[in-house]
Amino acid sequence: MRGQPNKTADEEAQIDLTPMLDVVFIMLIFFIVTASFIKEAGVEVNRPEASTSNPKENVNILIAVTANDEIWMDGRRIDVRAVRANVERLHAENPKGAVVIQADNTSTTETVVAVLDASREAGVLDVSLATEDN
């Protein structure tokens, strides 16, 4: 008997899935790396217009203040007293990020200032107010 031993029919009929799994994992890594993760506050607001607005980079914490002074973060409504804790938690995930407050143009200044103060108390100094371009 020379050469390889005889293979049974079952061994010849098996399909090697290793190359397919390699391709799937490479595709998964590609999509994770190239995906852009956009965080949204969870509610749409009518932002005020400003002629001196500048685009903001490294935004990872969005806080929305609605027309009836509800505060929204990460798609859920929160109380003004919980803003600081939520900002601290999100800022710990990305310390280089900034806070952007999306306040409705009919929301009260008191609520917007309370959110701004809570963000600053949480240790984030880069706090901005979102506006619409003129």
State the CATH topology of the domain at 49-133. Answer: Nucleotidyltransferase, domain 5
* Biggest pleated sheet: 5 strands, mixed
Give the CATH class of the domain at 49-133.
Alpha Beta
- Level-2 CATH architecture of the domain at 49-133: 2-Layer Sandwich
Unreliable stretches (pLDDT < 50, length at least 5) are none
Order of helices and strands: HHEEEEHEHEE
Distance between the termini: 87 Å
**Gross morphology:** elongated
Q: What percentage of residues falls in helices of 4 or more residues?
A: 25-40%
Strand content: 15-25%
Mean pLDDT score: 80
The total of helices stands at 4
Kindly state the number of beta strands: 7
Helix-and-strand structural type: alpha/beta
**Nearest-angstrom radius of gyration?**
26 Å
Largest sheet: spatial strand order: 4-3-2-5-6
Membrane topology: Single-pass membrane protein; Single-pass type II membrane protein
Protein name: Biopolymer transporter ExbD
Family: Belongs to the ExbD/TolR family.
Keywords: Cell membrane, Membrane, Protein transport, Transmembrane, Transmembrane helix, Transport
Q: How would you sum up this structure in a few lines?
A:
This is Biopolymer transporter ExbD. Belongs to the ExbD/TolR family. The protein has 134 residues and is α/β, with parallel strands linked by helices.
Structure description:
It is found in: Cell membrane. Keywords: Cell membrane, Membrane, Protein transport, Transmembrane, Transmembrane helix, Transport. InterPro entries: ExbD (IPR003400). Belongs to the ExbD/TolR family. The structure is a single chain. This protein has a domain of 85 residues: Nucleotidyltransferase, domain 5 (2-Layer Sandwich). Strand 2 and strand 3 form a beta hairpin. The radius of gyration is 26 Å and the shape is elongated. The chain contains 4 helices and 7 strands; from the N terminus they run H-H-E-E-E-E-H-E-H-E-E. It is of the alpha/beta class. The mean pLDDT is 80. Strands 4-3-2-5-6 form a 5-stranded mixed beta sheet, with helices on one face. A two-stranded parallel ribbon has the order 1-7.
